[in-house]
Amino acid sequence: MEILVCIKRVPDTSENEIQIDGSGTDIARDDLVYSVNEPDNYAVEEALQIVARTGGNVTVVTVGGEEDEEILRREMAMGATRGVMISDDSFQGSDGRGIAAILKAFVQTGHYDLILTGVQADDGSAQVGGMLAALLDYPFASLVTSIEVLEGRKLKIGREIEGGSREINAIDLPCVLSIQTGINEPRYVGMRGIRQVASVPIPTLGAADLGVEPELVGAIAAKVKRTGYFVPPAGKGAEILAGSREEVVNKLMDLLKAKGGLN
Amino acid sequence: MFWLVRGSDLFLFLHLLGLFCFAYIVARRLAPLLRAQRDFRFDRPLARLGRLLQFWLAQWRHPRYRFAGALHILIFAGFLLLASRAFAVLAMGISDRFAGHPGGLYDAVRDYASTVVFLCMGIAIVRRLAFAPARYGRRSADAIFLLALIGILMAADGIFEGSHAAFHARQGTTAELFPPLSLPWAFELAFSSAPLAALVNLHLGAYLTHEVTFFFLLCYRPFGIQFHVETSLFSIYFAKLDRGTVKPVRWGVADEQLDAVPSFGVKKIEDFTWKHLLDFYSCADCGRCADQCPANAVGRPLSPRALTIKTRDYLFRHYPVFSPSSDGVPLAGGLYSEDEIWSCTTCGACEAECPLLVEYIDKIVDLRRGLVDDGKAPKPLHKPLKSLESRGNPFGKMEKKRADWAQGAVKILNGGGGADTLYFVDSITSYDDRIQSIGRATARILDSLGEEFGILGAKERDSGHDVRRFGEEMLFQALRGHNTEAIRSSGARRIVTADPHAYNALKHDYRDMPPVEHVSEVVARAVRTSKIRLNAVENGVYSYHDPCYLGRHNGIYDDPRDVLDSIPGLRRVEMKRCRDRSFCCGGGGLALFYEAKEEQRMGVRRVRMAADAGSSVIVTACPFCMVNIEDAIKVAGLEGQMTAIDLAELVDRQMVKAS
C-alpha cells in the first residue's frame, strides 16, 4: 500500500512558554523550539505499522520552508520511505483551503492508496484533512483510532465518538483519514536515526512542479484570516493559587476535597 | 599397588576419554565467545594480576556474607591444595612410579584439606536443605547434587588411602601414618578389622569411584554453576578495571565512526562481548547481587542473578554441546521484558557485591542501546529525551533561564580570563525549584572560600550522564560535545559540582577535562584546614546516605562523613546499608521519569532504614537523592519525624560566616 502522510511543524507546547507578540496576531517566535505536530506523528507511526503488515511505502510531505525539513527527517528516521518538501513563495499566507489545494495537487502527481493527516495541528483548525478529501473527491473519516486493512481495497476503521465510545466503519480506498492520538505508540526516534537520514536528498516541489492553481493559494486567496490572539482572562470561578509549591499543593488538595473531587 | 598395574591401560583409557570429553565440551562452550563482540581486556596485566590475587586467590569479597563466605574460602583453599593431589591420584592409575613417598608435610596438609572439604560439603548440603537463605531461590537440586559429588570425591580418596594403609597394617608392613581425625585416618580405623580381600576391593573400588566421579564432575561442570571453578580465573583476570565508566558502543570503533555501525547495543546473544558471555558462564548463582539489588528488593521485575542465569540457559540452548548451534533470536521482549531492562538504576550494588566481578551495568546499558536503536525507548522518556535534544535539559525549560537559580549572584563565564573554577550545575539544580537551593548553597560555600568561580549559564547543557546510561548514546555524545566546547572556551582550570551524576560524567565519560571535584571534597579539605568552621547543631540524629555515583562508583565515602563529624554536637549514626552497600534512592537523571512496576518505592525503603537506625535527618549529597528521599519521607508518612538535607545545604546553614 502506498501511504501519504501530511505533517506539520509546530511549536512544541511542552517545551515553550508561549507568549503573544507585539502585533497581537501571532505568538512570540524567538526562542521557540519546534517539533512534529503530535497527531501527525501518530499518523506516521500508523502508516509504518500498516506497511509493515501489508508492504508498500510511506511518503511524508509538508508544506513550508527550509526550516521544516527537520520534521521530514525525523519521520524518515522513524522509517518513512521518502520525504517531500512543498515550498513556494506564492504559498505564504495560505489558509486551510489553500494548503488543501496544494496537497491535492501533490497527491495527483503520485498514486496513493491512503492519505493520513493528524486529527489537527496544535496551532491549526482541523480542516485540511477534510478539505483535501473533498477536493480529491475521496471518502473521509476523522478521529480515527484504529485501522484494519480488508480485502478488496477496503479498510475497517474505528472512530472515537463522544463519551469515549467507538464506532466501526468500512471505507473504500483511496481515502483520507485524520488520525487521533492514542491509535498506537509512536516509536522513539533517536539522534542516531536522524543522523543516518541526514544526507538523504529531500526533493522540494514548487507551484510550477505541482501545477497548483495560483488563485487558490497564498495570502490573497485566503478567505480566513487571523485577526487576533488573546490569553483568556481569569473568569469568575477561576482561581489562581499562589504560594510555594507546598502551599499550592495543600490548597489544591483542600479544594479538591471540599468540592468532592477527592474522598 | 601391584594389582593396579593390570588396570593401568583401562585407567589410561578412562583418563583420555574424560579429558577428551572435557576438551570437547569446553570447545563447544567457547563457540559463542568466538562469535561474540570484541572486548579489549588484554591491557594492564599487572593491575589484572593484582586483582586476580585479591579477588580470586584471596577471595576478597567472600567474607561479606560471613558464613557462606567462610565456607567458600575453606572449600576454595581445599581445592587449591588438592589440585595436585587429584592429578597425582590420576597418575597413580597409570603407573606406580607416580605413587610418591607418603608421610611428608604435604600429605598431612592435603589429608586435612580433603577432610575439611568433605565436612564443608556436608555443612553446605544441610544448609541448603534446612537453612537455605532466601537469596538461593529454589534452584537447590543442582547445587546439592554437585556438593554431593565433591563429597563423594573426597570420601573416595579417603577410602582409597585408608584401605591401602589398613591392608599394609594387616600384613605387618610399614603403613602410612595419617594425621589424626583426617578422612584416611578415620577410614583406616574403620577398616582395621576388615578382611584382606575386602580391603583390596575397597581400594580398587574407591579408586574407580574417584576416577569416574572426577571425570564426571569435570565434564558436568560446564553445564551449570560449577563451571565457575574453571572460568572464574579468567573472569576475574579480564574483569573491568575502570569503575564509573560505560563500555563504548563497539570496542575498537571510534566515536566518529559510529554512524557506520549497522546496529547498536545488544539485540541478539552474539551482540554481547565475549567477556560478558564469559560472565554468564562464571556466575555461581549465589544470589548476592539480587540480595543487594534495590530494584529486586522493591519488587521491580529485575534480578541481576535471574538475568544472568536465564541468559546462561539461553546460551546453552542456542549453543548446545551435542547439536549444531542456532543463531540467537531477539532477546528484549522475549528473554527479558522491556520493563526488566529499564528497571535498573545503574546503582552498582550488584557489581560491588559479586565475588566473581560479574558486570551488569554495561550489559544493561547495551540492552538499552539495542532497544533505543529499535525505537523502543519507554514512552515516558520520549519527551525528556526530545527536550534534552532541543533544549539541553529534560524538563523542556528555556536555555536562557538556566542561570535563573543563581538570582544574578554568580558570574557567568564566557571565556577570556574569567575565573579559575567552573561550577558545573547540571539540569536539575538549574531548573527544579526545590533543588536550586542546593545550587545556591554550593555557590555560597565557594564564595566563602574565596574561590574565583563562575557558571556556564545558558551555554551549559545537561551532562548527559543518564542519557548515556539509558542507552541514547548519540544524544549523550551531542550533549558532551556541546559542554566540552563550552567548558574549554570558559578557560576554567578546574571544575566543581554538587551533582554526583555530573561529577561521574565529567570524570569518566568526558575526555580531557580539567580536574573535577565534588563539593563534598572541597568542603572536607576546607574543614581540615580550618578554612570553614561550622557552628554546632542543637539536636537531631543524622544519617548520611551514600549517593551511588559518589560512593560506589567513585569511592568517596569519607569526605562527607568527615564534614558531618566536624560539626560540633552532631550525632551521626550509620544505616544498616551504608558505604558500598548503600541502598539506591530510586535513581537519578532519566530514572526520575521512568515509573517501573514496583511494590514500593526504593526511597521509601531507604527512609525506613534511616528510621530503623534511629535517625531523624538524612544527609545526602546528590540532587536526585534529595528529590527521591523527600518524596519518600512523605509517602512513608514520616513527615515531621524526618527531614532530608543536602550536605551543601547543611554546610551553608552551619558555616561560621565572616562578618
Chain-wise SSE layout:
The complex is a heterodimer of chains A (263) and B (659).
Chain A: E1 2-6, E2 9-11, E3 34-36, H1 38-54, E4 57-63, H2 69-78, E5 82-86, H3 96-107, E6 114-118, H4 128-136, E7 140-150, E8 154-160, E9 166-172, E10 175-179, H5 191-196, E11 204-205, H6 207-210, H7 218-221, H8 245-258
Parallel strand pairs in A: 1-4, 1-6, 4-5, 5-11, 6-10, 7-10
Antiparallel strand pairs in A: 2-3, 7-8, 8-9
Helix pairs in contact in A: 3-4
Chain B: H1 2-5, H2 8-35, H3 45-57, H4 66-94, H5 105-130, H6 140-171, H7 183-190, H8 196-220, H9 228-237, H10 274-282, H11 288-292, H12 294-297, H13 304-318, H14 338-342, H15 349-353, H16 361-373, H17 379-391, E1 421-424, H18 427-431, H19 436-448, E2 453-454, H20 465-469, H21 473-490, E3 494-497, H22 500-509, E4 516-518, H23 519-528, E5 541-544, H24 558-565, E6 571-572, H25 602-612, E7 617-620, H26 623-635, E8 643-646, H27 647-654
Parallel strand pairs in B: 1-2, 1-3, 3-4, 5-6, 5-7, 7-8
Helix pairs in contact in B: 2-8, 2-10, 3-9, 4-5, 5-6, 6-7, 6-8, 9-10, 10-13, 19-27, 23-24, 25-26
